[in-house]
């Protein structure tokens, strides 16, 4: 059995995330994104690799979308409405609610850029109708064999990591995630699962970030300085995600500092988005969730709708304008007006696509920007670059992979050289085989498979009772002795023989059965044949004899019961000194360690004695031992200890 | 498995309560409160003349034990106590391992349990039920505080009214409430828990989403599936190593507010515990709910028809009926308002209230009457806010509202437009400044003993134009006793609160259980044809259900299994197990674990068969060990048959060292002084014997 992962997008790059995983006969497409950097056919994953004939309904069991960013969902309407996929599509409630807004916004942008329109508004509506919303942790039975489950991923509202299980094989596809909470979202959360494969994003494969609070303070300080001096702040942003986070940040700051400067939202889109956010407050961070009854955190007090006439109104203000990265549209319009004044401030996100004005502003500090042949913008305003990101850093990726400890890992959604570094780390530090396939490559990993058997009641019950054995390694395990850590390695070792008492029985035409060893003979109809060891050997007891004769000079041939006990007692002490980890039972006339028993033999001719001829003098006594196969090693050890205690034994 | 029905409950507000014993774990299903028994107490404030007559007239009458029609003075004038499930206090709370709560109503009695010492059970509740349940409990505590302030602190822990002499003089109807039918329920009464108890209780609760797997002790997997009764209510599946159980509480196929009954999630379970008693509470008018031959014949179709059947179950006539009821209530309300009367709606079913609010405001708007709607409750604001942030828990139509960016319930907009006003209490200053009559008021509690309803009912009870809307199931005679004479109109309305009996049969057909536990009280009303394994249960009777599976499943990892050393015998191939056994999510798994080389047993530990001494000697000589056979033992001599030849013999080893092998029918003893020699002999013995 194997799991095949066909990477259709985001292989060694960021954009058009799409992985098709075949697992025990089921085929799941994780994400169906588009690449923002291309305008030709390269912007969509190459769906023909899934099915030549275009019969996607039979080729795929289901599609799972992790979150509403376009590089994860952008190709979905194209895939369902143009390519004709009609099977089930799963995404979380917020993703289903907010995805149409993102898609619609993008579609309008496409119109503006004069590209070929690949899907229409109706396509989006029709596509979203096919989506089955899921809740976090809800175990969804896609069909009889396939189970999927969403886990909280942080990143954006509704972002989820997806777990999929078919038969005994299981995997997780993370999508984008954030391991640290931000202003409005919690950190990613997942159960400890038994996994064959984890496919994780690796946007920041080598970056380690410090606390976000310092960087938030920087941003707030920049904004506050600007408005205190009467300047205007332009925050170009996309409608969903970052806008809400910054707004919560500002709203909170406004309240604390008792600021009255207006905060504006440019288009209705963001205000409308806030409506969604209010209903989806359960998907935000714990802190925000708790406030829902008294005041919904997305009921922004200081936020107003913006009007074009306000662009040149006097006085300071903060404006959120779409689209982000100043691609065009309203944010560009405002930028043209505000950029020439030194008093004003423009904030930019951490990442801007090449070719946008945002990207130009970030690279150096230009004083003039050419919009087109005829238009040139004077840029004298201040520029602040936000340095917090909703993606996890390298430490977060390592932590997650370590926590899940899958048998294999695949990296996607990152930059090739950095991914290679992370791959090395995962392989060397965690010992997990790791791959970073390029687009359209397939990675095959083996999957877990179990043999099913019936276990008998006796076996299960015997497994419920712990049957630990403790022993020390040091003297036994040679491999440790060779290494320089030999001292550290020697220590208590716990072994448990419960499983070894089980016997697996396979009979033709019947289901395999696990029984306890005691039940085996009954089943086979045979009688048990006990194989035992025995050994009766003489032991010189000079010292003991002396003390005894002093006290009882008359009786010298027979050892009375009391003396037997003393001798046994002495042996017991001796043994417990030498075998510190053994459980020694002193039963008066008998000593017992596991199945090994030793007692003083008073018979004249014990069948377990090898040499009958030996001196029958009063100086020595016979110790009769017997033990079972199980404790062979232990028994010989004890015998050698006992023998060494008196040098005059034969 | 053992099953005990502690109480079959009564109606929507008092869920059934059961105790289940599965895989050695004790599971309590629901822990409700019987709030209907609050009717025993007199609400505050009490009319003054009632106090005066208490000493003279009524006492004489009580002494003479004259039965007459009840009046308000017969009620108990004391701080109310609360009645828990009558048989629950007979069980030791510390022995409960798991509590499964299927509705907000089912958790009202939970703080009584969680505050007992040594209570350590894991409590599973759906997220929405937990939140709503907590609010209901907080509201109950705050309403009770109002009464407490009136009565002052209790002097002794044993209230006056619980004394036998007091109980004996109670009129029979009230005595039945206090003592139960068989006079054994007095122990169920408890003084109410405190707000701290509620908080404490909520801390011990583990919340779940629908269909979220929760694993108890690595053995039991419990999952909640929507039951459609109310927001957050659920049915449970309990999967253990040997049992798969589905517990069906009161369920509604298609709801106007909550997520639909997810019966498909309950498929694949061997045993179904059917605990929807709602059809018991229905009046006799619904006699036509008897087993219907038409549905049964259509139900006898092929399995391929399952999906069709599932669809037919969801095809609802019921929810249309429910909407009609709401419209009717609204119409009656409108009539009252038109003639200047007010409408009082003490209904505590969240879903019904939310739908009524929508209907009512729609109707009022169209009638162009400017009548305000008030909601008075200490938790109303929070509850209403909560209902709008839980799209994952509501019905499909309302989820669609989320996707189109509208609020889930219309009350959000109505509150903003100031058509609905929400106040925490009747005496809140905002209410006093805003109050205008006629009006429509929604407030707790349906028992008419607690909360704002008491004040408003006193205010309006003599107004013939006003209207009181009650749930059916409330004993109106006793409930209205303190407010008599009533001039107010009373509309009693029953709402759908469970499965109708004719849908039980097709439902079971779809779920295909091997066994069904069914209430005895309902069994006469229905015939279940195919499931011939039906256990009928009644209150306080323990049923033992035989286990359906003999053995437990165990999964052995293939990589481990490939390493096993197999031995073949006549028919069987056997091997000793290795690895580590894990118990995870109710599954036994054998995985290759860490095992140092020395601990591995290379040698068989169990032997059987009888050794042939000559063969043994040959094997020994192959190893360079030589010896002679000495026939010694006397019992061997007595037997002359062929067997005795190798039954008891001693092999005397003389090379390389002296050793003895004592071979008998049942065992072999190896006597050697040398470890090396001994182990060689064992190897030889292994060869001649069968062993593992």
Automatic annotation (TrEMBL), chain A:
Pfam family, one: RMMBL
A cellular-component GO term for this protein: nucleus
Classification via InterPro entries: Beta_Casp, INTS11-like_MBL-fold, MBL, Metallo-B-lactamas, RibonucZ/Hydroxyglut_hydro, RMMBL
Subcellular localization, as worded in the UniProt entry: Nucleus
Domain Metallo-beta-lactamase: 15-231
Keyword entries, A-Z: Hydrolase, Nucleus
SMART domains assigned to the protein according to its UniProt record, in alphabetical order: Beta-Casp, Lactamase_B
Similarity annotation: Belongs to the metallo-beta-lactamase superfamily. RNA-metabolizing metallo-beta-lactamase-like family. INTS11 subfamily.
SUPFAM superfamilies named among the record's database cross-references: Metallo-hydrolase/oxidoreductase (SSF56281)
Lineage: superkingdom: Eukaryota
Name of the featured protein: Cleavage and polyadenylation specificity factor subunit 3-II isoform X1
Main location: nucleus
UniProt key word Nucleus: yes
One BP term from GO: snRNA processing
Gene3D superfamilies: 3.40.50.10890, Ribonuclease Z/Hydroxyacylglutathione hydrolase-like
Residue stretches making up the Beta-Casp domain: 243-361
GO MF entry, a single one: hydrolase activity
Automatic annotation (TrEMBL), chain B:
KW Nucleus (keyword) present: yes
Pfam families reported for this sequence: Beta-Casp
BP GO annotations: snRNA 3'-end processing
SMART domains linked: Beta-Casp
Main location: cytoplasm
Keywords assigned by UniProt, alphabetized: Cytoplasm, Nucleus
UniProt-listed PANTHER family: INTEGRATOR COMPLEX SUBUNIT 9
Descriptive protein name: Integrator complex subunit 9 isoform X1
């Amino acid at each position: 059995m194997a799991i095949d992962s066909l990477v259709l997008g985001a292989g060694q790059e960021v954009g058009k995330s799409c992985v098709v995983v075949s697992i025990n006969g089921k085929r799941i497409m994780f994400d169906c994104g588009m690449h923002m950097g291309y305008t030709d056919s390269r912007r969509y994953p190459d769906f023909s690799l899934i099915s030549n004939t275009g019969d996607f309904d039979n080729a795929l069991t289901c599609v799972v979308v992790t979150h509403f960013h376009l590089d994860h969902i952008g190709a979905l309407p194209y895939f369902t409405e143009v390519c004709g996929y009609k099977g089930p599509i799963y995404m979380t409630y917020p993703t289903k609610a907010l995805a149409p807004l993102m898609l619609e916004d993008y579609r309008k942008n496409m119109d503006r850029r004069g590209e070929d329109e690949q899907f229409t508004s109706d396509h989006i509506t029709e596509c979203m109708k096919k989506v089955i919303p899921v809740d976090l942790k809800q175990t969804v039975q896609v069909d009889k064999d396939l189970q999927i489950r969403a886990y909280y991923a942080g990143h954006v509202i509704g972002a989820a990591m997806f777990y999929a299980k078919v038969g005994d094989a299981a995997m997780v596809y993370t999508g984008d995630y954030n391991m640290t909470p931000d202003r409005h979202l919690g950190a990613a959360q997942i159960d400890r699962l038994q996994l064959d494969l984890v496919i994780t994003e690796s946007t920041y494969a080598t970056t380690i970030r410090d606390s976000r609070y310092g960087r938030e303070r920087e941003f707030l300080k920049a904004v506050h300085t600007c408005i205190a001096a009467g300047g205007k702040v332009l925050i170009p942003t996309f409608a969903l995600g970052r806008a809400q986070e910054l707004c919560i940040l500002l709203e909170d700051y406004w309240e604390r500092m008792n600021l009255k400067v207006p905060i504006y939202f440019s288009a209705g889109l963001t205000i409308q988005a806030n409506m969604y956010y209010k209903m989806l407050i359960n998907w935000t961070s714990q802190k925000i969730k708790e406030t829902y009854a008294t005041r919904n955190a997305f009921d922004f007090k200081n936020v107003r709708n913006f009007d074009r006439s306000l662009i040149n109104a006097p006085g300071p203000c903060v404006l959120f304008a779409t689209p982000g990265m100043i691609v065009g549209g309203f944010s560009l319009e405002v930028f043209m007006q505000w950029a020439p004044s030194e008093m004003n401030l423009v904030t930019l996100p951490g990442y801007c696509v090449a070719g946008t004005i945002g990207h130009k502003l970030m690279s150096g500090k230009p004083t003039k920007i050419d919009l087109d042949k005829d238009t040139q913008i004077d840029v004298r305003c201040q520029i602040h670059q936000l340095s917090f990101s909703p993606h996890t850093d390298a430490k977060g990726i390592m932590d997650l992979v370590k926590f899940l400890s899958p048998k294999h890992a695949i990296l996607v959604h990152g930059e090739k050289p950095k991914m290679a570094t992370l791959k090395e780390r995962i392989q060397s530090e965690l010992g997990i085989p790791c791959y970073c396939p390029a687009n359209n490559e397939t990675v095959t990993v083996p999957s877990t498979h179990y043999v099913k058997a019936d276990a008998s009641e006796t076996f299960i019950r015997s497994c419920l009772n712990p049957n630990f054995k403790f022993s020390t390694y040091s003297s036994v395990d040679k491999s440790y002795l060779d290494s320089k850590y030999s001292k550290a390695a020697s220590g208590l070792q716990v072994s448990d023989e419960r499983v070894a008492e089980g016997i697996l029985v396979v009979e033709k035409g019947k289901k395999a059965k696990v029984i306890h060893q005691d039940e085996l003979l009954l089943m086979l109809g045979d009688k048990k044949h006990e194989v035992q060891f025995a050994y009766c050997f003489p032991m010189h007891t000079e010292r003991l004899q002396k003390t005894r004769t002093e006290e009882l000079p008359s009786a010298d041939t027979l050892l009375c019961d009391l003396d037997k006990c003393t001798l046994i007692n002495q042996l017991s002490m001796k043994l417990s000194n030498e075998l510190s980890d053994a459980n020694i039972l002193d039963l008066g006339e008998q000593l017992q360690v596991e199945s090994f028993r030793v007692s003083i033999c008073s018979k004249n001719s014990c069948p377990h004695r090898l040499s009958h001829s030996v001196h029958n003098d009063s100086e020595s006594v016979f110790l009769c031992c017997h033990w079972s196969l199980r404790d062979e090693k232990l028994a010989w050890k004890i015998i050698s200890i006992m023998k060494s205690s008196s040098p005059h034994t034969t | 498995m053992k099953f005990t029905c502690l109480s079959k409950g009564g109606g929507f507000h008092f869920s059934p309560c059961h105790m289940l014993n599965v895989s050695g774990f004790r599971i309590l299903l629901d822990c409700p409160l019987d709030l209907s028994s609050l009717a025993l107490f007199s609400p505050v404030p009490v009319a003054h003349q009632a106090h005066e007559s208490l000493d003279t007239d009524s006492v004489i009458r009580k002494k003479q034990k004259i039965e007459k029609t009840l009046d308000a003075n017969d009620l108990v004038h004391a701080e109310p106590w609360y009645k828990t499930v009558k048989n629950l206090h007979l069980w030791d709370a510390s022995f409960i391992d798991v509590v499964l709560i299927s509705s907000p109503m089912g958790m009202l009695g939970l703080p009584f349990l969680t505050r007992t010492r040594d209570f350590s059970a894991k409590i599973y509740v759906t997220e929405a039920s937990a939140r709503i349940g907590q609010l209901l409990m907080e509201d109950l505590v705050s309403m009770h505080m109002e009464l407490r302030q009136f009565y002052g602190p209790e002097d002794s822990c044993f209230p006056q009214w619980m004394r036998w002499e007091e109980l004996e003089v109670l009129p029979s109807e009230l005595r039945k409430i206090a003592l139960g039918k068989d006079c054994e329920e007095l122990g169920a009464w408890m003084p109410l828990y405190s707000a701290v108890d509620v908080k404490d209780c909520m801390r011990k609760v583990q919340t779940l989403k629908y269909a979220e797997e929760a694993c108890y002790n690595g053995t039991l997997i419990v999952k909640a599936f929507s039951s459609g009764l109310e927001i957050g209510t659920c049915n449970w599946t309990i999967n253990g190593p040997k049992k798969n159980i589905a517990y069906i509480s009161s369920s509604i196929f298609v709801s106007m507010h909550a997520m639909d009954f997810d019966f498909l999630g309950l498929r694949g379970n061997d045993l179904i515990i059917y605990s929807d008693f709602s059809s018991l509470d229905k009046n006799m008018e619904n006699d036509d709910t008897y087993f219907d031959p038409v549905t049964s014949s259509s139900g006898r179709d092929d399995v391929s028809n399952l999906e069709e059947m599932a669809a037919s179950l969801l095809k609802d006539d019921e929810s249309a009926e429910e909407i009609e009821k709401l419209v009717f209530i609204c119409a009656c309300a409108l009539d009252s308002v038109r003639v200047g009367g007010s409408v009082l709606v003490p209904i505590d079913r969240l879903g019904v209230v939310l739908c009524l609010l929508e209907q009512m405001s729609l109707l009022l708007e169209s009638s162009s009457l400017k009548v305000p709607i008030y909601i008075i409750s200490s938790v109303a604001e929070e509850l209403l806010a909560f209902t709008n942030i839980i799209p994952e828990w509501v019905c499909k139509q309302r989820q669609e509202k989320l996707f189109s960016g509208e609020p889930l319930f219309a009350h959000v907009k109505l509150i903003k437009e100031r058509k609905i006003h929400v106040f925490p209490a009747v005496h809140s200053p905002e209410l006093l400044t805003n109050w205008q009559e006629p009006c429509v008021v929604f407030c707790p509690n349906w028992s008419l003993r607690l909360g704002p309803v008491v004040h408003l009912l006193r205010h309006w009870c003599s107004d013939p134009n006003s209207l009181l809307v009650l749930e059916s199931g409330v004993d109106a005679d006793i409930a209205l006793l303190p407010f008599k004479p009533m001039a107010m109109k009373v509309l009693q309305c029953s709402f759908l609160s469970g499965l109708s009996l004719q849908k039980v049969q097709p439902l079971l057909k779809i779920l295909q259980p091997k066994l069904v536990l069914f209430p005895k009280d309902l069994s006469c009303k229905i015939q279940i044809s195919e499931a011939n394994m039906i256990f009928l249960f009644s209150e306080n009777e323990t049923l033992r259900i035989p286990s359906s599976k003999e053995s437990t499943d165990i999964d052995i990892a293939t990589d481990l299994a490939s390493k096993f050393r197999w031995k073949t015998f006549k028919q069987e191939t056997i091997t000793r197990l290795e690895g580590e056994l894990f118990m995870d999510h109710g599954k036994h798994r054998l995985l290759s674990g860490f095992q140092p080389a020395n601990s591995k047993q290379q040698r068989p530990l169990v032997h059987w068969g009888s050794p042939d001494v000559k063969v043994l000697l040959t094997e020994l000589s192959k190893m360079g060990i030589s010896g002679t056979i000495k026939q010694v033992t006397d019992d061997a001599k007595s037997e002359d048959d062929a067997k005795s030849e190798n039954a008891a013999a001693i092999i005397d080893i003389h090379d390389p060292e002296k050793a003895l092998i004592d071979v008998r029918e049942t065992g072999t003893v190896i006597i050697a002084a040398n470890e090396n020699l001994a182990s060689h002999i064992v190897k030889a013995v292994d060869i001649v014997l069968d062993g593992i």
